[in-house]
Amino acid sequence: MARVLIHPVVLSGGSGTRLWPLSRALTPKQLLPLISENSLLQETVLRVNDPERFAPPLVIANDEHRFQVAEQLRLIGMKPRALVLEPQGRNTAPAIAVAALLLSADEPDALLLVLPSDHGIQHRAAFLAGVERAAAAARADALVTFGIKPDRAETGYGYIRRGKPWPGIEGCFAVAEFVEKPIAARAEQMLAAGGYDWNSGMFVLPAKLYLQELVRLDGAMVEACRRALSEAKRDLDFLRLGAEAFGAARSVSIDCAVMEHTKAAAVVPVEMGWSDIGSFDALWRAAPKDADGNVTVGDVVTAGARNSYLRSECRLVTALGIEDLVVVATEDTVLVVPRSRSADLKQLVAKLERDGRAVLHNHPLVERPWGSYRSIHNGERVQVKHIVVKPGGRLSLQYHHKRAEHWVVVQGIARVTRGDEVTTLIADQSTYIPLGMPHRLENLGDTPVHLIEVQTGSYLGEDDIVRLEDIYGRVDKNG
Predict the structure, then answer these.
(1) Residues 75 and 101: beta-carbon distance below 8 Å
(2) How confident is the model at residue 479 (pLDDT cuts 50, 70, 90)?
(3) What pLDDT sits at residue 17?
(4) For the chain, what is the total number of helices (H) and then of strands (E)?
């Protein structure tokens, strides 16, 4: 008899603001290589790359990140069961409901392994053993979460109090209580008392049971998710949920929607070297350190520094005599914060949001499905970009209401459309795109095309793009 495979459901919709300036709205932390050469998303997917245990993953992602997610999966040779796009974030309960509905339509007894895409796990064998125990409990009608043994009185995580052993499943317990993020004194009490685990946010769920409980507790959410799936449209390799229907679902976590209100909640404690990589302090704890307790990434030189996280993305960073600090230098900003305060970074992010700072949203290098661009100068009525178009890449046929563009090809061979005219440009050749003229650039060669684009006009934002044709499905959309 063939083994029934577990269905990984990878949630990749978060923004990761507590790791700014590495993580930004258009390139959140799950898409970054923070603990290895792979991104956190790639590490999550590779963790369940075992065809004897797991079906291909179902990935649920933010619409704005779709091309980056698809490309990262392609780079590790992983073809997902589906890549579902949320038109807006509604937290984990509706996302999991969509996955349960989608998978149970083909397999009524499907088991879901729900994995946030931004966690780090050091011990894969322990993780897999925990999944096996949780799956056994799920087959015995449990909604199972993974508990992490606390090693400190952490106030940034929720806790789970273990109840009685789950009948017939060794190493699994009924959930006696969920505890929200506690104050320090309460965290100390729970650590001393024992019997409490951190709430990891990972689950093994029978699709049928999860939907039954959700119908009982919030039937309107399930109905909204059903409608969102019935109205979903295929777009290239993506499945776009119906926007209005999905937006009607209550925005709430699975814990608040289901786990805290069901008698079927169970917990499997696992020691697997888990971290939610939710702050620079968590990133420091998860990474290898030197003899002085420092984590250094990039071109960093220290003398007398201790217990600090020091990272450079672009230039030499030097540190003398500092202790317990986070110093992060990117191409366009520098962050300095006490490591103990790194979880409070959202206060700084909120201020930058109020000030309208673009550094919250984009890195200087912006990825696109056809390649990338980097803004190298912004001034009054002028912006200069270095654009790279990969082989086979094709920008949309588009025009602008408020700007004109000058293109200079630096490397490669570009085919350029200007209105009804189609020409070929090679290195050191240029063209001018007047305001309002439809235009497109294509790379039909085997090497990247590099060009310098000079934009001039009254408004130079990315939303002044009217797309007429686009092979990436972005007509009437920015991105």
Answers:
(1) no
(2) very low
(3) 84
(4) 10, 30
Beta carbons within 8 Å of 110's beta carbon, 6+ residues apart: 7, 100, 103, 104, 206, 207, 208
CB 295 within 8 A of CB 339: no
- Looking at the predicted structure, is the pLDDT value of residue 224 above 50? yes
Q: How far is CA 454 from the centre of its chain?
A: 32
Q: What is the 3-state secondary structure (H, E, C) of 438-454?
A: CEEEECCCCCCEEEEEE
Is the pLDDT reported for residue 239 higher than 70?
Answer: yes
**What mean pLDDT do residues 233-249 have?**
94
273 by DSSP, 3-state: which? coil
pLDDT at 16 over 80: no
CA–CA separation, 142 and 7 (whole Å): 16
CA 339 → CA 319, 328, 342, distances in Å? 15, 12, 5
Tell which residue, 65, 73, 69, 72, has the closest CA to residue 89: 65
Tokens 């294509």 — which residue?
442
Q: How far is CA 438 from the centre of its chain?
A: 34
Which ranges in the chain are annotated with CATH 2.60.120.10? 365-469
Of residues 218, 210, 302, 224, the one with CA closest to residue 259 = 210
Closest residue by Cα to residue 67 from 355, 325, 390: 390
Q: pLDDT tens, 98-115?
A: 999 999 999 999 999 999
> Residue 10 is inside which H or E element, if any?
strand 7-12
- State both tokens at 193: 């008392």
In this structure, which topology does domain 7-275 adopt according to CATH?
Spore Coat Polysaccharide Biosynthesis Protein SpsA; Chain A (3.90.550)
- At residue 128, the 3 state secondary structure works out as helix
Where along the chain do the CATH 3.90.550.10 domains lie? 7-275
pLDDT tens string 252-278: 999 999 999 999 999 999 999 999 999
Q: How far is CA 111 from the centre of its chain?
A: 23
Q: What residues are paired with 120 via a beta bridge?
A: 275
In the chain, the amino acid numbered 241 is L
- Alpha helices in 399-453, H assignment, sequence order: none
Which CATH architecture is the domain 365-469 placed in? Answer: Sandwich (2.60)
Place of tokens 């310098």: 452
Question: What was the pLDDT predicted at 265?
Answer: 97
Sequence-ordered list of residues with C-beta below 8 angstroms from that of 182, at least 6 positions apart, any chain: 155, 159, 190
Q: Are strands 365-368 and 371-379 parallel, antiparallel or unpaired?
A: antiparallel
